[in-house]
Design a protein that fits this description.
5-stranded mixed β-sheet; 411 residues; Nucleotidyltransferase, domain 5; binds zinc ion; disordered N terminus; 15 strands; 3 domains
Length: 411
């Protein structure tokens, strides 16, 4: 490509600017690159239903306007294409997005540029805030720090995505009752944060956002049908079916933690009995080990498993067995090609947990459906804030335009 280098003046042409208008090929290519990340011309042709010749012409125009630049071939496509460097990406400096994750004890925040590269990050503890205003002030402070870090090089912030450990009501965009701190439940989090930072805010739940992160940055990039399960202080989940996040009628699909695995088991916080979450969370692991070791912190649990202490191995095997029951049910219903296990209790527990899940899966899932399922840990360390950033990247309401002075900005 002969595109201008990052930072050099944009060179708008009448034809190029027309192409950026609503429905124009240039605008559609920019939107596809923002949503999907760096892509080859062949991919863009397929995604947009436009001939490769036309895609090539318009990319040439966008390069002359200094909006796109060369990129390495997307992950996993180098061998297939055999032509490294044949992809394009939105250039550095066109903007960035912010993703925030709220956990029971932390606010974790990151920024990615429009080519999906993480460019800034910041964390802050969030322990027992007095009220929602105090909690939002902590969130706003971390977000401002990340924006300050990213803005000097990346330009304009397009918006902020917020991941909450709760189902989100699609009408109100507020958290429904769940294991998250009560102060988040039914609170106008989006409006409060927007008022403080003056940017659009998007809200999603952990499990669904982890699916978006796996789709853009993880192993979900290569498959259209996969399920993510997060084993943490609670059990989260999300489902990608046919390349789309499965939301369900009311946005509550993917609540894998409340699949019943033991009809006579413990009462769950949801009011049901024997949900997966009662036997497959960090809390349940701590309860299981209490008779032997007393109160144990997560780090001690991982240490005990690492030392192959019999009680710890039994507890994690029991946990994996229960997860395997739920996984088998999901395989029989949804026929995925990949099961991704994430969360604090996953990789740090080592292969013993995957072995237990796989053993139960092989016992219970239909042979035809389980034959092609891969079961693996997530390769992403922090999928939730990445997924929150993806929520903003996938927003379609903002468009890049070139003003009369030739400067690109977002409407
Ligand atoms: Zn439940």
């Amino acid at each position: 490509m002969t595109g201008a280098s990052p930072g050099s003046p944009a060179v708008p042409t009448g034809r190029g600017r027309d192409s950026l208008r609503d429905g124009g090929t240039g605008g559609r290519i920019l939107q596809a690159l923002r949503t999907s990340g760096p892509a080859t011309r062949a991919d863009l042709s397929r995604i947009l239903g436009i001939s490769r010749t036309r895609v090539g012409q318009v990319i040439g125009e966008l390069a002359r306007m200094n909006l796109v630049t060369d990129a390495p071939a997307p992950h996993g496509q180098e061998a297939r294409l055999g032509r490294p460097g044949s992809a394009v990406r939105l250039r550095t400096g066109l903007g960035f997005v912010v993703g925030v994750n709220i956990t029971h004890a932390h606010v974790r925040c990151l920024a990615t540029d429009l080519a999906h590269v993480v460019v800034a990050a910041a964390d802050e503890p969030l322990v027992d805030p007095l009220d929602i205003d105090q909690a939002i002030e902590v969130v706003a402070r971390v977000v401002r720090r990340v924006i300050d870090k990213a803005a000097a090089v990346q330009g304009e912030c397009l918006g902020v995505g917020l991941a909450l450990p709760a189902p989100i009501d699609p009408e109100t965009l507020r958290a429904a009752p769940s294991s998250c701190h009560q102060l988040w439940v039914d609170a106008p989090v989006r409006e409060l944060l927007q008022a403080r930072i003056g940017l659009p805010v998007y809200v999603g739940n952990h499990g669904n956002l982890a699916v978006l992160a796996e789709r853009l940055w993880g192993d979900g990039h290569r498959v259209d049908d996969f399920i993510w399960i997060g084993l943490d202080t609670n059990v989260g989940g999300g489902i990608c079916s046919g390349g789309q996040l499965l939301r369900g009628r009311d946005g509550f699909a993917g609540e894998l933690g409340h699949i019943v695995v033991d009809p006579r088991g413990e009462i769950c916080r949801c009011g049901n009995q024997g949900c997966l979450e009662t036997v497959a969370s960090l809390d349940s692991m701590q309860r299981a080990l209490r008779p032997v070791y007393g109160e144990v912190e997560p780090s001690r649990i991982f240490e005990l498993i690492g030392r192959a202490e019999p009680a710890a191995l039994r507890a994690i095997t029991n946990l994996g067995t229960h997860v395997g029951v739920a996984v088998s049910t999901l395989i029989n219903i949804l026929n995925p090609s990949l099961f991704i296990v994430g969360g604090l209790l996953s990789r740090q527990c080592g292969p013993v947990i995957l072995d237990a899940i796989r053993t139960e899966m092989n016992r219970r899932a239909l042979p035809a459906a389980r034959r092609s399922v891969r079961l693996q840990f997530s390769a992403l360390r922090r999928p939730e804030p990445l997924g929150a950033a993806a929520l903003v990247l996938m927003d379609t309401s903002r468009h890049l335009v070139i003003d009369e002075a030739g400067r690109p900005h977002w409407t």
